[in-house]
Amino acid sequence: MSVLKALMVAVSVAERKRDEARQVLQNAQAACQAAQGQLSQLEGYAEEIQERWGAKEGASLKPEVMYHHHQFMGRLGHAAGLQSGVVADHMQRIEAASRASAWEDDGQTFRRSGSRGRRTRGFFGADGCTGAKPRS
């Protein structure tokens, strides 16, 4: 009976670690989505500003105004570049969390409740910030 109890404890610990790894993966995906949303906002704002200035193309503007617009667009581009780096960092965190949550090399897990011994495919792997695609 003690072997069975030890096995049950080991399974319980493994399930807890699996659940924690899944939570880390979900948190990383949520953070990546937020960072991607911020990047999209920056890019959308830059496009909007360019469209506004494109409509004023025929108008005569003072050189100081053009200079400040150019500097502003440069700063906006720089901010978008930094945010792209943040998104890339989050993607790497998702990759690491995905690897940590796949606790068997072939991506298969054992389901304890109701299906002893039957294998079910695990779903881990990042496609963008969110989607998980099945391993083959």
Question: How is the topology of this model organized?
Answer:
Elements: H1 2-55, H2 63-101, E1 108-110, E2 119-121, E3 126-127, E4 131-132
Antiparallel strand pairs: 1-2, 3-4
Helix pairs in contact: 1-2
In short:
The chain is mainly alpha-helical and 136 residues long.
Please explain how this structure is put together.
The strands form two sheets. The chain has a two-stranded antiparallel sheet with strand order 1-2. A two-stranded antiparallel ribbon has the order 3-4. It has one domain: Orthogonal Bundle (Helix Hairpins), CATH 1.10.287. With 136 residues, it is mainly alpha-helical. The longest helix is centred in the N-terminal third of the chain and has 54 residues, at 2-55. It is rod-shaped. Residues 104-127 and 132-136 have low confidence and may be disordered. Helix content is 68%, strand content 7%. Strand 3 and strand 4 (131-132) form a beta hairpin. The two termini are 38 Å apart.
Features:
136 residues; mainly alpha; Helix Hairpins; two-stranded antiparallel ribbon; 7% strand; disordered C terminus
Give the biggest sheet.
2 strands, antiparallel
Succession of helices and strands: HHEEEE
Would you state the CATH class?
Mainly Alpha
Task: Return the structural class.
Answer: mainly alpha
Please tell me the total number of domains.
Answer: 1
Rounded average pLDDT: 77
The whole-angstrom Rg is: 24 Å
CATH architecture: Orthogonal Bundle
Q: Count all strands and give the number.
A: 4
| Strand arrangement, major sheet | 1-2
Number of alpha- plus pi-helical segments: 2
Intertermini distance: 38 Å
Shape: rod-shaped
